[in-house]
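User: Hey, my collaborator sent me this sequence without any context and asked if I could get a structure. I don't really work with proteins. Can you help?
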Amino acid sequence: MTMTPAEADKILTGSFAPWVLDLGLLVETLTDDHVVLRLPRSQRLAREGGALSGQALMAAADTAAVIAVAAARGSYGPMTTVQQSTAFQRAVTGSDVLIKAVVTKLGRRMAFADITMTDSVSGSLAARASTVYALLG
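Assistant: No problem. I've predicted the 3D structure and written it out in structure-token form, which is a compact way to encode the shape of the chain:
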């Protein structure tokens, strides 16, 4: 059963903390094994010098992976982050970030995803992350 972008938007608005919603994430692409979210440029999320903060990127990566796992399962169910590892490669200033989360393994109790975060203007890789989730329901 394929999840629609509208269903993914409902997961975003109904299942995440208000401060995650403040990131303004938008669903760009959704398939059965991956999602692309857009993190809009915001001065509120910038550090000194205008670069997007690492905390915002990590929260966006985690959120994208949850949506990707839900899409792979066909619907949202309770899950919790067991591990997230992020490597930052370059700063993003003055543009949105595209966050692509790909489910690499979906088991009965665990799910794994890899995330890439790219500058939406230049296409340059800004960061990579990998995540592991315990599926609770």
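In plain terms: Residues 15 and 44 are 23 Å apart (CA to CA). You can pass these tokens on to your collaborator as they are.
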